[in-house]
Amino acid sequence: QLYYQVLNLGMIVSSALMIWKGLMVVTGSESPIVVVLSGSMEPAFHRGDLLFLTNRIEDPIRVGEIVVFRIEGREIPIVHRVLKIHEKQNGDIKFLTKGDNNAVDDRGLYKRGQYWLEKKDVVGRARGFVPYIGIVTILMNDYPKFKYAVLFLLGLFVLVHRE
Amino acid sequence: RKNVEDFTGPRERSDLGFVTFDITADILNGKNDLQSIFDWNVKQLFLYLSAEYSTKNNALNQVVLWDKIMLRGDNPRLFLKDMKSKYFFFDDGNGLKGNRNITLTLSWNVVPNAGILPLVTGSGHVSVPFPDTYETTKSY
């Protein structure tokens, strides 16, 4: 019986992993779903909102789009809007971003000496969103005990659940 | 239009453009012309006026000159006159001088309560030509 429960758990975990990896391929983004961490895009997005991204190379970066990007050397992705683009004939593009709720553009956030973002900095473009749901991830990050409790309960649920 | 140092950017001189504009717009739902854009699932609109042009340096340039957040409940009609651009219209280089083909378009990002985030471009646009010379003095 235990053998069966463990297999069951394994199936669920690997299915979830497959779906996640599948999403990564379909959207072209390494992180197809992100949680909004700051209030810099209010009133459109608030902390805890979930964003769905695509990162298809064929989609050109244009002003007005909401991009999720990483600054070189920093882990935390930022969700802001494209304010300016300059694109060369060969497709090389450099662009500037700004949070809707910020008074100034993001130059102050970029690395020292960095004035523009490039395609390589982009994690994805926000195509859709769902409010509030991501709060759980934020809670789990800020309160590790909560994370363990959630994982423990999930594990318990799977083991105890009878088909 | 002047050629000045962009203090926020790389330390080279770039063209800085000054544009004043009027905006008259009626934002409607694309599907049914008589219906307002603010249906049950629209939380807000992020409107922006962008200038698009080509230069020797760059095949495509887009600069947002002005933006506005329009919340559900606001009047989806715009009647603005003599607006100055909210953001500095710096070119990446000196491509504004003598540029006859700068197109201004009004677009908006529809932010739903939940769901897809489309970008819509308004019909109608304006072409702005820049003069061949720089202005030496102008208060802005």
UniProtKB/TrEMBL annotation, chain A:
<comment type="subunit">
    <text>Component of the signal peptidase complex paralog A (SPC-A) composed of a catalytic subunit SEC11A and three accessory subunits SPCS1, SPCS2 and SPCS3. Within the complex, interacts with SPCS2 and SPCS3. The complex induces a local thinning of the ER membrane which is used to measure the length of the signal peptide (SP) h-region of protein substrates. This ensures the selectivity of the complex towards h-regions shorter than 18-20 amino acids.</text>
</comment>
<dbReference type="InterPro" id="IPR001733">
    <property type="entry name" value="Peptidase_S26B"/>
</dbReference>
<protein>
    <recommendedName>
        <fullName>Signal peptidase complex catalytic subunit SEC11</fullName>
        <ecNumber>3.4.21.89</ecNumber>
    </recommendedName>
</protein>
<dbReference type="GO" id="GO:0009003">
    <property type="term" value="F:signal peptidase activity"/>
</dbReference>
<keyword id="KW-0472">Membrane</keyword>
<comment type="similarity">
    <text>Belongs to the peptidase S26B family.</text>
</comment>
<dbReference type="InterPro" id="IPR019758">
    <property type="entry name" value="Pept_S26A_signal_pept_1_CS"/>
</dbReference>
<dbReference type="GO" id="GO:0004252">
    <property type="term" value="F:serine-type endopeptidase activity"/>
</dbReference>
<feature type="domain" description="Peptidase S24/S26A/S26B/S26C">
    <location>
        <begin position="20"/>
        <end position="109"/>
    </location>
</feature>
<keyword id="KW-0378">Hydrolase</keyword>
<dbReference type="GO" id="GO:0006465">
    <property type="term" value="P:signal peptide processing"/>
</dbReference>
<comment type="function">
    <text>Catalytic component of the signal peptidase complex (SPC) which catalyzes the cleavage of N-terminal signal sequences from nascent proteins as they are translocated into the lumen of the endoplasmic reticulum. Specifically cleaves N-terminal signal peptides that contain a hydrophobic alpha-helix (h-region) shorter than 18-20 amino acids.</text>
</comment>
<dbReference type="InterPro" id="IPR019533">
    <property type="entry name" value="Peptidase_S26"/>
</dbReference>
<keyword id="KW-0645">Protease</keyword>
<keyword id="KW-0812">Transmembrane</keyword>
<dbReference type="InterPro" id="IPR019756">
    <property type="entry name" value="Pept_S26A_signal_pept_1_Ser-AS"/>
</dbReference>
<keyword id="KW-0735">Signal-anchor</keyword>
<keyword id="KW-0256">Endoplasmic reticulum</keyword>
<keyword id="KW-1133">Transmembrane helix</keyword>
<dbReference type="InterPro" id="IPR015927">
    <property type="entry name" value="Peptidase_S24_S26A/B/C"/>
</dbReference>
<dbReference type="InterPro" id="IPR036286">
    <property type="entry name" value="LexA/Signal_pep-like_sf"/>
</dbReference>
<dbReference type="GO" id="GO:0005787">
    <property type="term" value="C:signal peptidase complex"/>
</dbReference>
From TrEMBL, chain B:
<dbReference type="GO" id="GO:0006465">
    <property type="term" value="P:signal peptide processing"/>
</dbReference>
<dbReference type="GO" id="GO:0005787">
    <property type="term" value="C:signal peptidase complex"/>
</dbReference>
<comment type="similarity">
    <text>Belongs to the SPCS3 family.</text>
</comment>
<dbReference type="GO" id="GO:0045047">
    <property type="term" value="P:protein targeting to ER"/>
</dbReference>
<keyword id="KW-0735">Signal-anchor</keyword>
<keyword id="KW-0256">Endoplasmic reticulum</keyword>
<dbReference type="Pfam" id="PF04573">
    <property type="entry name" value="SPC22"/>
</dbReference>
<keyword id="KW-0812">Transmembrane</keyword>
<keyword id="KW-1133">Transmembrane helix</keyword>
<dbReference type="InterPro" id="IPR007653">
    <property type="entry name" value="SPC3"/>
</dbReference>
<comment type="function">
    <text>Essential component of the signal peptidase complex (SPC) which catalyzes the cleavage of N-terminal signal sequences from nascent proteins as they are translocated into the lumen of the endoplasmic reticulum. Essential for the SPC catalytic activity, possibly by stabilizing and positioning the active center of the complex close to the lumenal surface.</text>
</comment>
<keyword id="KW-0472">Membrane</keyword>
<protein>
    <recommendedName>
        <fullName>Signal peptidase complex subunit 3</fullName>
    </recommendedName>
</protein>
